[in-house]
Design goal:
Elements lengths: L4 H14 L13 H4 L47 E2 L5 E2 L11 E6 L2 E6 L4 H14 L4 E5 L4 E4 L12 H5 L12 E11 L5 E15 L5 E7 L3 H14 L4 H9 L2 E2 L4 E3 L7 E4 L3 H14 L2 E7 L4 E6 L2 H8 L16 E10 L2 E7 L9 H13 L2
Parallel strand pairs: 3-10
Antiparallel strand pairs: 1-2, 3-4, 4-8, 5-6, 6-7, 7-8, 8-9, 11-12, 12-16, 13-14, 14-15, 15-16
Helix pairs in contact: 5-6
InterPro entries: BamC_C, NlpB/DapX
Protein name: Lipoprotein
Keywords: Lipoprotein, Signal
Length: about 375
């Protein structure tokens, strides 16, 4: 486990005054059962030093708010009423013969999303706000109108070893301890078929790596998204919606796989794809595929079939938001170019995907072709 540069400084001072040696690091766990263990997540305890202002395919998983969330929209309804399932659960979803718990999980590769039956995004949005806040996160983006909810960067304090130094002396300067990682989560909420709501959770991560011969300096680098951590939070969300821990894990195991594949449109060249499924399901899968790439969905307009995306530079975001604070110098990072990914019906069971320009024409630039190629890979 890595330590922050600030921690290294605090440790040096402690050694000089108390003659105390080095600290012990712990190895991580990568299985779903490991991540579902209650002690693997503790974002609630995360605090930042005042001067810094600063996851087999599955394996359990707890975050804060730099920007205040806007007030709840008047159009949002009240909390969804609970329904009693045959198993005796009081759930948010509406039970059906096909879904006795009122919800089920679907998947595309290692990505999973929750389908809540009989509930609209408006009914579930306030509970999603509560969910992240209850797990120790603050919301950086809270846009019910677009169905995008993003947490601020946060630290999993459970990753910090509670060794003898920290127990005896370290509590006095606990803010100086760092797990050496930061996590962020994006929730996409989409209106599904037959009055259901689709909810997906995507993880982004950064890690502090010690550099130099004496390992006294550090730099922040991107870590791969953790599908197990995403699944763990999806399980926690199902528990908030009324399921037991065992029921949530079973739904994850029984996730229904997507089977439709994307092919290059012979008439559109390398800039256009055909996805063999109706618009409703294609719209969701394209959004999930974008989240699996290095592109971030800033906005979306389902009526126009448009995703507004930009290249995601996590390091620039950390600098801009001040998480790394005074550890960095220089100007504000330049905003990256925005692209429009168009998802439009081509036939009853075929949907066309392309990057378009401001006039709605297919963008044939190298960057646009790169995005289409990435989507092609993610949708197959």
């Amino acid at each position: 486990m890595k330590r922050s540069a600030l921690f290294n400084h605090a440790r040096t001072l402690s050694v000089l005054s108390l003659g105390i040696g080095t600290l012990i690091s712990l190895a991580g766990c990568d299985t779903l059962n490991d991540w579902l263990a209650p002690d693997r997540v503790n974002y609630k305890g995360a605090e930042t030093a005042p001067t810094l202002t600063v996851p087999s395919d599955l394996s359990t998983a707890d975050i804060s708010q730099r920007y205040a969330a806007p007030p709840k929209l008047n159009t949002l309804g009240g909390a969804a009423p609970r329904s009693l399932t045959p198993a005796g659960n009081a759930t948010v979803g509406v039970p059906t013969p096909q879904d006795p718990f009122g919800m089920h999980v679907e998947r595309d590769g290692d990505r999973r999303w929750l389908v809540v039956d009989g509930r609209s995004p408006d009914q579930l949005w306030p509970q999603l706000q509560e969910f992240w806040q209850e797990n120790g996160f603050t919301l950086k983006t809270d846009a019910a109108s677009t169905g995008i909810m993003t947490t601020d960067w946060a630290e999993n304090r459970a990753n910090i070893p509670d060794d003898w130094f920290r127990k005896s002396i370290g509590k006095l300067v606990d803010f100086a301890y760092s797990s050496g990682t930061r996590d962020q989560f994006r929730t996409l909420v989409e209106r599904g078929a037959s009055g259901s709501t689709d909810i997906s959770i995507t993880h982004s991560a950064m890690e502090e790596v010690l550099t130099g011969q004496d390992k006294t300096s550090s730099k922040w680098v991107e870590r791969p998204r953790n599908p197990a951590l995403e699944a763990a939070f999806l399980a926690k969300l199902m528990e908030k919606f009324g399921l037991t821990d065992a029921q949530a894990k079973q739904l994850l195991t029984d996730a229904t796989p997507a089977t439709a594949t994307a092919t290059a449109d012979p008439t559109g060249g390398p800039s256009t794809l055909d996805l063999s499924e109706p618009f409703d399901s294609a719209w969701l899968r394209v959004g999930l595929a974008l989240d699996r790439t290095n592109f971030t969905v800033d906005n979306r307009d389902r009526a126009k079939g448009l995703y507004y995306v930009r290249f995601s530079d996590s390091m620039a975001e950390l600098k801009k938001e001040g998480l790394l604070g005074k550890l960095f110098s220089g100007g504000t990072p330049k905003p990256s170019r925005e692209f429009m990914v168009n998802v439009r019906p081509k036939a009853d069971t075929v949907t066309e995907i392309a990057v378009v320009d401001a006039n709605g024409q297919v963008d044939t630039s190298t960057d646009a072709q790169r995005i289409v190629a990435l989507l092609h890979a993610q949708l197959n």
